[in-house]
User: Fold this.
Amino acid sequence: MAPFGSNQIEPCRFFNTAQGCLKGESCRYSHAAPDVNEAENDGLFEKWRKLVPQATGGRPPCWGSKLPQYFHGAYALVLSDAETLQKTIKLLAMDQGIQAIEELIDERIPSSNTDSERAILWRNCIRPFFQLLTEPRVASSTILEVHTGSIYTVVFGENASRLEILFNFLIELAAKWQAPLVGENDGPKSEFLELSAVI
Assistant:
């Protein structure tokens, strides 16, 4: 996929919508974040932060179709300047990020009943989530160690309950990692396994 600012590929018009792009990495249009300055990063961060759903009628908030945008947006912000990276990881370790991770693992993974649904969930939510956690500046940061530890604690879950759900999902997807389920933009199975194993 070419960078956002490239003249070769234009940006995906669905990526930043409420539903997000259903094609994920196999989309022929760019999902990459544009090169931006610090002031623009602040604006992008605020836009991302405002994706958070509000609780209604005493029920916890539901991310719904905003979940792919949330994880892709977080990954794009982690790739920007150090201050934005830190703010993004800190926010992921707070209530809104925890709720997004819980919804992803506790609800989205179990409700992905077909191979196609699992591949789309991988592309749109799980891969960008894994990519932001394994981004070298995040993984090696002592400043963010407490926050990334909190995120991993949520992923682990009580008695490894979430980790089991996540690993079973990854094992099932790995077993089917071939065309037509996965495309060229999904990369080889070895990349999928490497990214999954780092988590």
Summary: The first helix runs from residue 38 to 49. Residues 76 and 154 are 22 Å apart (CA to CA). Residues 1-8 have pLDDT under 50 and may be disordered.
